[in-house]
Design a protein that fits this description.
64% of the residues lie in helices and 5% in strands. It has 619 residues and is mainly α. The strands form 2 sheets. A 5-stranded mixed sheet has the order 1-3-2-4-5. The chain is elongated. The relative contact order is 0.10.
């Protein structure tokens, strides 16, 4: 559920033989690359900051300019970019660059020609180069490069190959370039989080660390830490839970909150808006739950039957991470399908926890939970956009569900369902509000006596207006999702995996029913999951209830179906709920891990063989 839309790393590195470079020369240079438009007013304003950066850094700064003319917003921008590239044929790109920016828009053809004259160009050659198709192609190549890098507006900045989305003032940019320790840590973490498989990798490391701890001399320490009771009140009280329980019911609430928000988005603007497109992942998710459960139950009767849910959960972080790493072997339509299937799969997992594994069900506390949900509904209908009332009600709901014997983590889903959303705002009024606030600050600074204006009333007024304009761009639901998503991916799920994957591998498989549990879980994930997904897809497509993604071939779909057998920490929670006593929970967890590894290997092999086969066919 991470955002893949923003490309944070420069896809085509700076090439001195092709790109336009300015300044630099020192051994260890900072590189500031800008995608710019000669008619963009903000590109013009940022030039002053860049000049001050160069004065501060001297030869340690290399400035790189790439063309990104927005002809729709700024008519004549493409011609200006082509003129700059024509000037570069005479080795005078930067002279033309400065001449174009020094002239106030609009830039007519006559203005551009005058700029070329003032730059000292050979006008006969300039006019010939200006109509050379390769000059226009060069501008188009920069435009295409920019779009691949997620450039939407100008200026878009990259510092040492990483996109810079910070403030455009001198001190913020200087700090980003010089990279003190805190900034380096932040940039490294951001770059890692942007890797397609980063969330799955962190989960894998957490699970491996737990396995290493519990199967080594550190096992007593691990069990002691996981069993420490934390909370408010006496031992055994409502809020006195072990560290493991806090991870499964407390922290996991944030994960289910994100799942709920993902469901809402898919229902409003995602895969679930079109009926036929939505039916495929819905039916495949149902098939992917029923088939492994039936295979497990065919092998397990009596006391071991409750473990049927262990092989039914698909790990979205792992599956999408593998598909992302496979790159072109996994078409985009296939990735969207797997993501939508995993969302439906998460819904089923939540219902499974709530319906089949309640512990000590208390009707009175369920009434309190229902009342809390009613308050959320009222807050939503009253259009209460402040966050704290929802937080208070969610805490009450969490306590009520926990006391009722139902997984309290489901409070996150309820919160997601009723967090208010807003229609997208009109950009014009917000632009006017932000521009007015910044213009007022600029006038105050220019008219001041050299002292600080941070203590002046205009500073507070401008700050309030800028904050209001910025906050309106996102609804409360959007703000919560952006705030919680990195914590869920890189803290919540890894901690839960670490607490739940502590499995002693030397379990007694000779114990009554242990081998059947292990075999049922492994076969459920490796055979049941892909079989259920494939059969459901076949039935849905043949009956014309649903359609396959347009860019997906049969082999790729089978590979994705196999990857759906890669499970997630929720399956480990289900194993604990199914077998609260004895060693069968550990056996089921070993089955989840072994089955997930086998499913991942088979899925990658099928998708990889499809790539090689396609390459051989083309040859």
């Amino acid at each position: 559920m991470t955002d893949q839309g923003a490309q944070l790393t420069l896809r085509r590195p700076v090439d001195p033989a092709r790109d336009h470079l300015r300044w630099g020369g020192a051994g260890d240079c900072y590189t500031l690359l800008i995608y710019g438009d000669y008619l963009c007013p903000y590109c013009r304003r940022i030039r002053g900051v860049i000049k001050r950066l160069q004065q501060a850094l001297g030869d340690r700064l290399t400035y790189v300019f790439r063309q990104f003319p927005n002809e729709r917003a700024h008519p004549g921008a493409v011609f200006a970019s082509q003129a700059a590239e024509a000037a570069s044929r005479q080795g005078r790109f930067w002279e033309m660059h400065d001449a174009l920016y020094d002239r106030e828009p609009p830039l007519t053809r006559e203005h551009v020609i005058d700029a070329a004259v003032s730059a000292g160009l050979d006008m006969d050659r300039f006019n010939r180069d200006l109509v050379d198709p390769s000059v226009a192609e060069r501008v188009d190549e920069d435009l295409a490069d920019g779009r691949r890098n997620g450039v939407i507006g100008t200026p878009t900045l990259f510092i040492d190959g990483q996109r810079y989305d910070g403030a455009w003032d001198l001190y913020s940019m200087l700090e980003a370039l010089e990279r003190p320790v805190g900034t380096r840590v932040q940039r490294t973490a951001r770059a890692f989080a942007n890797l397609p498989a980063s969330a799955g990798l962190v989960l894998l490391v957490a699970a491996a660390a737990a396995l290493a701890c519990v199967n080594s001399p550190l096992a007593p320490i691990y069990r002691h830490v996981i069993g420490i009771r934390l909370g408010v009140g006496m031992t055994g009280g409502l809020l006195a839970l072990s560290v493991g329980d806090w991870c499964s019911e407390g922290l996991l609430t944030l994960f289910f909150l994100l799942v709920g928000l993902e469901i809402r988005r898919e229902m409003t603007v995602g895969a679930f808006t079109d009926r036929r497109a939505a039916m495929l992942p819905i039916l495949c998710a149902l098939g992917g739950v029923l088939a492994p459960a039936l295979i497990y139950l065919a092998l397990n009767q009596g006391p071991t039957a409750p473990g049927w849910s262990a092989p039914t959960s698909t790990g979205i972080a792992f599956a999408l991470g593998i598909l992302a790493v496979l790159g072109p072997r996994a078409p985009m339509g296939l990735k969207v399908f797997v993501a939508a299937l995993a969302v439906v799969d998460d819904i089923i997992s939540m219902l499974t926890l709530a319906i089949f594994y309640p512990q000590g069900f208390e009707a009175g506390w369920m009434a309190a939970a229902a009342a809390s949900v009613g308050v959320m509904v009222a807050l939503n209908r009253w259009r209460v956009y402040a966050g704290w009332p929802y937080l208070v009600v969610t805490i009450v709901l969490w306590l009520s569900l926990h006391a009722a014997g139902v997984s309290a983590a489901l409070a996150g889903v309820m919160l997601a369902a009723f967090l208010p959303t807003r229609p997208a705002p009109a950009a014009g009024p917000l632009l006017a509000q932000a521009a007015t606030a910044l213009a007022a600050l600029e006038h105050a600074q220019n008219d001041g006596d050299g002292g600080s204006i941070e203590t002046e009333p205009i500073w507070e007024w401008a700050s309030r207006n800028l904050s209001a304009a910025s906050a309106r761009l996102l609804s409360p639901a959007d703000r919560v999702e952006r705030a919680v998503e990195p914590w869920s991916a890189f803290v919540v799920l890894p901690l839960f995996a670490f607490s739940a994957t502590g499995i002693a591998l030397n379990v007694d498989l000779a114990a009554n029913g242990a081998r059947h549990v292990l075999l049922g879980v492994i076969l459920g994930l490796v055979i049941g999951k892909p079989l259920g997904v494939a059969l459901a897809a076949l039935a849905a497509v043949k009956s014309r209830i649903a359609v396959l993604p347009d860019d997906t071939r049969l082999r790729a779909f089978i590979g994705a179906a196999l990857l759906c057998g890669v499970s997630d920490p929720v399956a480990l929670l289900m194993a604990d709920k199914a077998f609260p006593h004895g060693d069968l929970a550990a056996v089921a967890k070993i089955g989840v891990l072994a089955g997930s590894l086998l499913a991942a290997g088979l899925g990658v092999a099928v998708l990889g063989s499809g790539r090689r086969e396609a390459a051989g066919t083309e040859a």
